[in-house]
Amino acid sequence: MKRSFLFWAGMFFILILPGITAGEEARTPGFYVGAAKCDITPDRPVPLAGQFHTRISQGIDNPVMANVVAMEWVDAEGKSDYAIWVGIDTVSIRYEFNQTIRKAFREKFPQLDETKLILSATHTHSAPGLIADDYYRINQEGVMLPSEYIQFMVGKMIPAMEQAWEGRTAGKYAYGMDFAVVAYNRRAIYADGRAVMYGNTNDPNFRAMEGMEDHDVGCMFFWNAEDKLIAMMVNVACPSQENEGSMRIDADFWHPVRTMLQKKHGEDLVVLGLCGAAGDMSPHIRYRVAAEERMRALRKLSRTEELGRRIVGAVESTLEVVEGTRETPSVLKSLYAEIDLPERKITEQDYQHAVSEAQRLEKIAAEAKDGGAGGPYTQAKWHRRIAHRWDKLAENPNPVYPTCIHVVRIGDTVWCTNQFELYTDFGVQMKARSAAKQTFVVQLSDGLIGGGTYLPSERAMRGGGYGAVIQSNMVGAEGGQILVEKTLELVNQLFPKK
């Protein structure tokens, strides 16, 4: 009995199409997007990163997460470009973690370009540290060491990346921005010119906050082939460290942001929080404290809930306006560059002070019953590394600091990354001079070495204080300006003048 054409056509769709991978489907020109999330909360106590003193977690207030958005653009000739972006509830992307997860990525996705993987930290101070096991003095039993935790979280994150990449479908996007007061400049300037992080503003000698604030809430939304909102990337120029002294695991203000947005748009929604240039910013109120706290109490919200309310308000306001503009982006192009920035120069005075402080703190740590876990052990190392850098100057008087930049164009927008706690001045420069219609700057992303050290502005270096002293920096304002120029060079490559 002869079979009809329609029969055999139907058999093709039944038998053949299920075997086609998502990557093969993506050869059809267009934009493809997938998203996933995973819980990376440890199942044992861990050292929490972000302070000098050792903090071993004493419970969980809310989960820490890794959120993934995978994007691909295929042109008319079948050539593709893509980016896999992972936002992680942690302080910074440390070298130990970065090397481990990239090795796992190469093994799992040998067909993909590793430079298209972007890892970014939200900078919560109440998450496990992705650091060397001896960074903190750990004196108690049953603690999951950082090396163990890194293996634990990589085991969670690689499947989430696979789910996002393999699950991508033809999609659309929309973008926009609104504003929310989340960040406050945290460096107070006094009559004698000194700058003090978290300095008292109720002081007769207080004169001003040192720098500008960036209240942009930049948003990008993604819909799948079924026209379902599956993910959003939310860019806020503020570290998530309201609860920075907590002894409990906590994603800080990103937790209420996610829960509020998922309550409205569905539990499967992926909310990828990204920290903008905010090395001199904090969510801590610096003045008008009583007035803000009164309003928060009247709303019956915790401080992180109040910050979440502000961010969600900006996100929802943006979505309401731009939802009708969703479309297939005209292009997705991802560039990656490795650059050398000049290290900040160490003076002999810096060296002498660092050695003196290191010796003093090492003595305190040696005599303490806890071995200096209360702070001296880590603070001594903070100073001692300046002495190590000074010693190396004899061999190389002009050392450089290698780092990397990702620049991703999506339609008329561009995303720019750096690995530092980058002072806001530099991020605003990038936004002001960018050729894109909307520019997103993301700090604390993956680097080549080290982690997220501060990169201060010139005026901050003049004022001194934590975050701007040599112990806080590998790169100074000179290198920061080079970072700006190199980033804008890449942006201009993606937006050539007509």
Set down the secondary structure blueprint.
Elements: H1 5-15, H2 22-25, E1 30-39, E2 65-74, E3 80-88, H3 95-108, E4 117-121, H4 146-166, E5 169-170, E6 172-179, E7 184-185, E8 187-190, E9 195-197, E10 206-209, E11 216-223, E12 229-236, H5 254-265, E13 270-275, E14 281-282, H6 289-299, H7 303-322, E15 332-342, H8 348-367, H9 376-392, E16 400-410, E17 413-417, E18 421-422, H10 424-433, E19 438-442, E20 454-455, H11 458-463, H12 477-494
Parallel strand pairs: 3-4, 12-13, 17-19, 18-20
Antiparallel strand pairs: 1-2, 1-5, 2-3, 6-11, 7-14, 8-9, 8-10, 11-12, 15-16, 16-17
Helix pairs in contact: 3-4, 5-7, 8-9, 10-12
Helix content: 25-40%
How much of the residues is beta strand, in percent? 15-25%
Rg (CA only): 24 Å
The pLDDT mean sits at 94
End-to-end C-alpha gap = 63 Å
Q: Major beta sheet, specifics?
A: 5 strands, mixed
Low-confidence stretches: 1-26
Give the overall silhouette: globular
Structural class: alpha+beta
Can you count the beta strands?
20
Q: Number of helix segments?
A: 12
Strand order in the sheet with the most strands:
4-3-2-1-5
Question: What does this entry look like structurally?
Answer:
There is one protein chain. The chain has twelve helices and 20 strands. Helix 5 packs across helix 7 (303-322) and helix 10 (424-433) packs parallel to helix 12. Helices cover 33% and strands 23% of the residues. The strands form six sheets. The protein has a five-stranded mixed sheet with strand order 4-3-2-1-5, covered by helices on one side. A four-stranded mixed sheet has the order 6-11-12-13. The protein has 498 residues and is α+β, with helices and mostly antiparallel strands. A hairpin with a 2-residue loop joins strand 16 (400-410) and strand 17. Residues 1-26 have low confidence and may be disordered.
